Amino acid sequence: MPEGHTLHRLALELTDAFAGSVVRVGSPQGRFAESASLVDGQVLEGAEAWGKHLFIGFAGERFVHVHLGLYGKLDVRTGVEEVPDPVGQVRMRLVRADGTAYADLRGATTCELVTAEQRDLVVERSGPDPIRPDADPDRAWQRIRRSRAPIGGLLMDQTVLAGVGNVYRAEVLYRHRMHPLRPGSTLRQSQWQATWDDLVVLMAEGVRTGRIDTVRPEHSPEAMGRPPRKDDHGGEVYVYRRHGQPCLVCGAKVRTDVLQGRNLFWCPRCQPTFRSRAVQ
DNA sequence: CTGCAATGCTAAG
DNA sequence: TTAGCCTTGCAGG
Fold first, then answer.
1. CA A157 to C1' B13, whole Å
2. A121: Cβ–Cβ under 8 A, 6 or more apart, which residues?
3. Is the model's pTM score more than 0.85?
């Protein structure tokens, strides 16, 4: 679901399904109808993601900017015989002119038609994205090393780093044994580099599989003889939404707290406090 | 069935 | 700091 890997995966799916084809663009729900008419019947040139932002490019330098927010969804279907009637509130529907593929957007926070300049503004405001090969982790490091804000907040700040959401945040902090409230300025550069390198691998895997898996092989359900996780996000994780359950590595009870309105999860033993008085 | 929380973010107050 | 977006899956009655 919508952390950066989801948007990059969608960009690939959209490009595969529609690039180079004439596409009918509509808004069964109506809220995107006016903009849709401006690109309806144009050639879709490709789709690209930066962090959690998706841009679908049409002939004439016009882009549909999509942000899924918390529960938005974009379903891409290819190789269909027939395009079904829309179900629910479909904000935007793309249909290949030959009718063999369609995509439905629902519940998105943002769906707007923008110029190349407007797209560039979004990209410029974003921090480096671990999924993009052109990303420069030093840009993020320069923000982190100068900030007394908790690393748990910095990782979710899309102007510091683009694409990391609540699951990757919790999990990468766990994997690097960092307490979420530790100030950014107390990290060593080597720690940041290791964290970044890990995100590059984890998130690329997320693009490939469409889910967030962060446990190492020795902690997999098979290796540990435990049942696989079964809930809506599907992947195998160490601490995300596991509060009150035993840590897979040390057995301590996973803890939770709220930081800036978002749920934090961490293991008090594997992610020791950075100071004696910090939250445990 | 009803209610609520959720991988996010913006704008209003 | 809070409401809103308006979907989905789960818990509880």
1. 23
2. none
3. yes
